[in-house]
Amino acid sequence: MAVALSIRHRLASRFITPFHHFTFSFSFTTATTTSPPQHHHRTTPPPIRVALTDSVGRAVFATRPIAAGDLIHTAKPALCHPSPSAVHTVCYSCLAKLANRTNSEPQRVSFCSQDCERRCKEYYDFEMKANWTAFDDYCRTHGLKYPFLVKRLACMVVSGVARSDSLDILQPANLTPEMILEMEEEFALLRNAFTKTLIADEHIAFLTRQWYISVLARIRINAFRIELAGGLYEDLLSSAVASVEAEAAVGNAVYILPSFYNHDCDPNAHIIWIDNADAKLKALRDIEEGEELRICYIDASLDRDARQELLFGGFGFQCNCSRCLHGD
C-alpha cells in the first residue's frame, strides 16, 4: 500500500530570529473506556514539547520513549485548500477524495459530509458571494498555489472564524524585492474581489498589502503538500521505505505544531495523510526521551549532492545532518 511522505516548504530553523528561551506544551485528549465514550475524556501527558534552543532555534523533543511505528500525535490544519487540479474531486473543506468525481464533471465544489459543510459554512457562504474569476485565473495561469490559501484565510477572517494574526507564530520566508513585486498584483486582484462585494470597509481593514505579503511569506515555507494514502491507519507500514503513491497532490495545508519540526535527511519521524488533511506524525524508529524529532523536507532517497542542492536552492540552508556529514 502507498504511504505519502511529507514535502516541506520552509527554511531551516537556523534562520529563525532569536527569541527568549521558552517551551511550548501541548496536551492531547483521548476517549476513556467508560460509557458513553463520546461524553467522557481525559487529558494524557503529551509525548512531545517544543522549545527554543541555542543551536537550531525552535525544535520538537520527545518527553518519553516512543516506539517505532507509534503515532506521535495528529494535527488538524490551521488552513487548507484543494489544488487547482483537484478542486472538483476532493472535499472543499478537508480534502478527502470524493467518490466517483472527476474534473470532467460540472465545475462546482462539493463536500464529503454534512459535518464538513457545516464546519466551513460561514466562510464558504461568504466566499461564494465574491467573484474570484480574475484572481483565480491569474493564479492558475502563473502556476501559483499558495495565494489560494491566503484567499481562504481572508474569507475566514472576514466571516469571523479566524483572526488576521492566526499565522503570526510561524516564521516567515525571506522575500526578495522581486518576489514582493510579484505578490502585489495578486494582492490587488484579491482586494478588488473583496471590494466589489460591497463589504463594509471596517471588515476588510486588515486586508492590506503588508498583511497579504506577511501571510504569504509564512505560508511559503510552512505549507505542506498533501497526498493521501488509501486504507486504514492500522494497515500502514511504519517504514519510510514504503512506496509513495504516484499522483498529484490533492491540496496544500498549513499546520502550527508540525511546522516546528526541523529537517534531517535520516529522519526519525514522518507525516502521513490517510483520508483527509488531518496530519498524522509517526515514529520511523525507536526514539529516546529528550531526543529531537525530525522529519525530511525532501525525497530522502536522493544522493547527497542532489539533497544539498535542493535544500539550499529551495529552502536556503546547507544540511549538516549526520547522513550528509558522512557523505551518504
Task: Write up what this structure looks like.
The chain has 328 residues and is α+β, with helices and mostly antiparallel strands. Helix content is 26%, strand content 17%. The chain has 8 helices and 14 strands. Helix 4 crosses helix 6. The chain is globular, with a radius of gyration of 20 Å.
Q: What does the radius of gyration come to?
A: 20 Å
Judged by helices, strands and strand pairing, the structural class is alpha+beta
Strand order of the largest sheet: 2-5-6-14-11
Which word captures the global form? globular
Condensed summary:
This protein is 26% helix and 17% strand. It is α+β, with helices and mostly antiparallel strands and 328 residues long. Strand 12 and strand 13 (279-283) form a beta hairpin.
SSE layout:
Layout: E1 8-9, E2 23-25, E3 28-31, E4 41-44, E5 48-53, E6 57-62, E7 71-75, E8 79-82, H1 114-119, H2 121-127, H3 133-141, H4 146-158, H5 177-195, H6 209-222, E9 223-226, E10 251-254, E11 262-263, E12 269-272, E13 279-283, E14 292-295, H7 304-315, H8 322-325
Parallel strand pairs: 11-14
Antiparallel strand pairs: 1-9, 2-5, 3-4, 5-6, 6-14, 7-13, 8-10, 9-10, 12-13
Helix pairs in contact: 2-4, 3-5, 4-6
